[in-house]
Amino acid sequence: MKILLTGSNGQLAKEIISVIKAGKCDFKNISNNIKDAELILFNSQELDITDMDLVKNVILQNEPDIIINCAAYTEVDLCEINEERALKVNSLGARNLAIAAEMVKAKLLHVSTDYIFSGNSKTPYSEYDIANPQTVYGKTKFLGEEYVKQYCSRYFIVRTSWLYGINGNNFVYKIKSLASKNKSIKVVNDQIGNPTNANDLAYHILKIIETNEFGIYHCTGAGECSWYDFACEIVKLYKLDCEVIPCSSDEYKTRAKRPQYSSLDNLMLRCTVGDEMRDWRKALKSFISRN
């Protein structure tokens, strides 16, 4: 089996590589089929997914069985300024990979986001809920999903949220750094979502790609919380002497609107390959114990 991975220097891609090489995630072994797979890695400098001809040539030369697309323009506020760049990477890049995957009859797993929803719900979003993105980032990621569905017949779209991993610039490390330097920090308590350990997500991605259970998946940590709750748990687990003070989103002006409520329901996982995502507190404790 050949697995081609784009965006290989990113937080999620590095976790996927680590799990494959170790043959296991934090809580379970992966299959021997995946463990023994040939990994073909491309970072964004080596493979510009916005270049259609280059993507086609690379895929035709390597003939992978599976393509995992972790390449994305994820700077939410910068997407509002660099709309063309966001469209090229998040939408056209996904389209190019979908077209190339179909040429070699490869499966394509495309990673997406909770930002494709409006954030105005009161209950977790299921895969069948209607997308209504409110930001350039969300709109371009959703268009990428549409291209994948249009051009590839063997696709998995995996939406996740509030992701953190060992190799990444994420909320956990940000709070750890701020809480280590300050006696108090302010964190918004009116945005709700699902913290997701990249190790858990990587395991499920590798489980999904072995199947023919094609379609859209939500894959986030179990349970929901606010950024304030998340920060409190981080400070507690790192045993830092810092007070976390709740505040409203109005106190933090951002160029891109953040979803007020973006919890996802892993309904498709439960109905197909099985949902083994850990409770977000348990997964966070595991993560912090490792670093």
UniProtKB/TrEMBL annotation:
This is dTDP-4-dehydrorhamnose reductase. GO terms for biological process: dTDP-rhamnose biosynthetic process. NCBIfam families: rmlD. It is an enzyme of class 1 (oxidoreductase). GO terms for molecular function: dTDP-4-dehydrorhamnose reductase activity. The lineage of its organism: Bacteria, Bacillati, Bacillota, Clostridia, Eubacteriales. Gene3D superfamilies: NAD(P)-binding Rossmann-like Domain, UDP-galactose 4-epimerase, domain 1. GO terms for cellular component: cytosol. PANTHER family: DTDP-4-DEHYDRORHAMNOSE REDUCTASE, METHIONINE ADENOSYLTRANSFERASE 2 SUBUNIT BETA. Its EC number is 1.1.1.133. Pathway: Carbohydrate biosynthesis; dTDP-L-rhamnose biosynthesis. The keyword Nucleotide-binding does not apply. Catalyzes the reduction of dTDP-6-deoxy-L-lyxo-4-hexulose to yield dTDP-L-rhamnose. Keywords: NADP, Oxidoreductase. Coiled coil: none annotated. Belongs to the dTDP-4-dehydrorhamnose reductase family. Residues 1-290 form the RmlD-like substrate binding domain.
